[in-house]
Amino acid sequence: MRGVMNTKAFCAALLATTLLTGAASAAESQSTAHPALWPVAKSQGLVDPQTEAFVDAVLAKLTLEEKIGQMIQADIASIKPEDLKTYPLGSILAGGSSPPLGAPDRSPIGPWVKSVEAFRDAAAQRQGGTQVPLMFGIDSVHGNGNAVGATLFPHNSALGATRDPELIRKIGAATAQETAAAGFDWAFGPTLTVPRDDRWGRAYEGYSEDPEIVRSYAGQMILGLQGAVSPFKGGGGGVIQQGHVAASAKHFLGDGGTHLGKDQGDTQVSEAELIRLHAQGYVPAINAGTMTIMASFNSWNGEKMHGNKSLLTDVLKGRMGFDGFVVGDWNGHGQVAGCTPKSCSKAANAGLDMYMAPDSWKDLYANTLAQAKSGEIPMARIDDAVRRILRVKAKMGLFQQARPVEGKEAVMGSAEHRAIARQAVRESLVLLKNNGVLPVKASANILVAGSGADDIGQQAGGWTLSWQGTGNTKADFPNAQSIYSGLKETVEASGGSATLSVDGSFDKKPDVAIVVFGETPYAEGVGDIKTLEYQPGNKTDLALLKKLKAAGVPVVGVFLSGRPLWVNPEINATDAFVAAWLPGSEGGGIADVLIGDKAGKPRTDFRGKLSFSWPKTAGQFTLNRGDKGYDPQFAYGYGLTYASKVRVGRLSEKPGFTVAADNTSNYFVGGKTPSPFEFRLTPTTAVQIRPVDAGNVQEAGRQLTFSGDTAATAALAADKAFDLSFQANADIDLLVDYRVDAKPTAPVALSIGAGKLDVTPVLEASPLGEWKSLKVSLKCFQAAGTDVTKVTAPFELSTAGKLVVSLQSVKLTTDPAGAVCPGKASQ
Question: Which residue in 185, 427, 519, 524 is the catalytic one?
């Protein structure tokens, strides 16, 4: 790779670094990068005389207020269009679960385009000053997964198995068109992380555990998203006029290498390891002309990336020649030592050009402006940041009015794009085991079972219509096909039959059962796990597989997951086992490979090869090619074909690792209080509890009766405090499914610690005897006084009056639809 130092020079430079720091262990503990050690790259197509002359002219006209505005990005859920008549912000984003204006989160492109237009129109009405076009960003991480009707491509962990850079470029181009059609001009991707610990909840956002695949894909995805970047021409077409969008290579740097796989954690590696493993994708990305790069949440040896000047400025913008702009991640600047989401000069001085300040933008604007006026942020740094932003906007074509793809509904889920996605599904399937049952004859009588068989939301995974990919129904995917539907369509065309039976029951014995099961959707933070064992302690899917095997039915397992998991028992309970990853909207791609012709001959062969090593035990969290003692169940690069003669024998069913459940999100579910939570009533003379039926399940609820004799509290509490700061920052909500059985006679407070909210109006408005749901953002409790870093009781209901209320469930939810923020209760 161009610019990598030879071994002798590298060792000499590293030795010099060690001597300078004064300790042999400094290379392991340092958080200051040394540019001479890093590979050389150079942004292609971003700097040219015409563009720089145009930028010079605009920059000269901007006031300081306008310059600071360019450096701040707000989320669509926390800013109104009319705010832009006063605040000259440079960018808007729509976060993972932020809805378009006045419309549901799950909306087609129409409401998204109207929202973008509303912000543009309001910005144009700002009086005086210089108009600079807005830049709209969105997480199009596997297609434009925010808009109903979009094509959803397999997630990156699946794409790594294809080993097909040309396909990656086609996916990028299709994603760009569907992003631009919805009114957005900036996709927050590709993710160039190299996940090294499969417990990490974002592992599926990485192409591979090994940088070789990331290196081969990075430039191709950039070129697909952005197209070729050409010199700025005042009246000519930019990237957006060509049906492309700006890319954002992310997350710089080392997000996949955090200690224990903890999201937003600390990457404790030497500088040499940071370069060798985590920086390799950025060279081809920069060389391909990526317009933006996103700073990472993680730390490197204790220093947060958003504040690491040696990496953001000295390495990225200096040694690696990046001429675009660096954008932050969701309030990531607030995690820098000495900073808050509302104030962080250290991030700008470190090299952050645009703050992602979704809900903190207004205070951040005021504080950053004051820091600029005082000289705390030098004017040269401000001008450099704004120059970079204006350069990208010019190259994008945002100063021109034309948006030829915007609003084009036919682009969304087009036949061409779906065909690309279906190809990606076919190529990404990895055959782990085939003891003679595949391919299935197209004329066969097939039973299709399992929770994922007819669930498009499950096969699509996280970052799908909502941040965590939860709360979706089949109706939300009008242009998609479930795995069952694809199987049914394929076999019926050849005289066979496919019957859906999620629980595996049947009247007539089938020729074969295809069981589709696996992880339910998740995204960052929420997706972090403690063990690689699939369904530890509650192996319902294994029971389904065994039931079918016991009935003498040949079983094909189709496993949906964002990462390799320990599934030895499930593999043993099948005759064939396919790692299908998270295939997205085109379930028919599964049938293309699993179903043969009428005679049982293959129509399409398996070609997927593991880009992540598959574990032999549940404790092989860091199982990566080249590691000392590398001992996988299925090695990196493994993948059978129909020509393979390999027969997989019985695998060990000893997990080799167990872990106690770490529950901080489910407080009362299914009639139970999962550990470590329990109901606590104070005083027991004034509030009582008894089981009631709920959700058509006997005694699955609990009825709380407050006598009104004295002030009383019913709480769900743990034995020790736990931290919900991530959940609060991520806009996660407390969800209470309740039924009012007797109206309150006095004010009622819902509390988490010191944060008390008045829910009396909610309970008074609830019809007697009807189950309702109350969803309250953790940020509401935080604003009312809750210390989210030390939570013991995540649910407390208190009143001095009479009240009878039943609970069906109390838990955290990532779906913000319908959330409210009751007023602060009087103390």
Answer: 524
Of the two residues 447 and 659, the one the predictor is more confident about is 447
Q: Where are the beta strands (DSSP E) in 269-368?
A: 292-295, 299-300, 303-304, 325-327, 355-356
| Separation between Cα atoms, residue 625 and residue 611, nearest integer Å | 10
C-beta atoms surrounding 122 within 10 Å: 18
d(CA 324, CA 247): 10
**Beta carbons of 317 and 285 less than 8 angstroms apart:** no
Confidence tier at 662 by pLDDT (50, 70, 90): confident
d(CA 615, CA 598): 36
Q: What is the pTM of this model?
A: 0.88
**pLDDT given at position 235:** 53
329 is an active site residue:
yes
What's the DSSP call for residue 367? H
Catalytically annotated residue among 271, 329, 353, 586: 329
The identity of residue 112, as a single letter, is W
CA distance 322 to 283: 9
Per-residue pLDDT tens over the stretch 74-98: 999 999 999 999 999 999 999 988 9
Is the separation of the CB atoms in 115 and 146 below 8 Å?
Answer: no
Lowest mean pLDDT among 44-58, 253-267, 562-576, 812-826: 812-826
Active site residue 592: no
| Residue (of 175, 166, 177, 117) closest to 145 by Cα position | 175
Three-class HEC string of 187-204: ECCCECCCCCCCCCCCHH
d(CA 88, CA 95): 20
Q: Omega of the bond prior to 190 within 30 degrees of 0, cis?
A: yes
DSSP state string for 529-588 = -S--BSSTT--HHHHHHHHHHHTT--EEEEEE-SS--B-HHHHHT-SEEEEEE--TTBTH
Q: What is the pLDDT of residues 346-356, one digit of tens each?
A: 999 999 999 99
* Mean pLDDT, the chain, whole residue set: 94
Run of H or E including 123: helix 109-124
Bin 72: left if φ > 0, else alpha if -120 < ψ < 50, else beta. Answer: beta
Candidates 825, 670, 817; CA nearest to 735 is: 817
pLDDT at 731: 83
Number of H helices, E strands in the chain: 23, 28
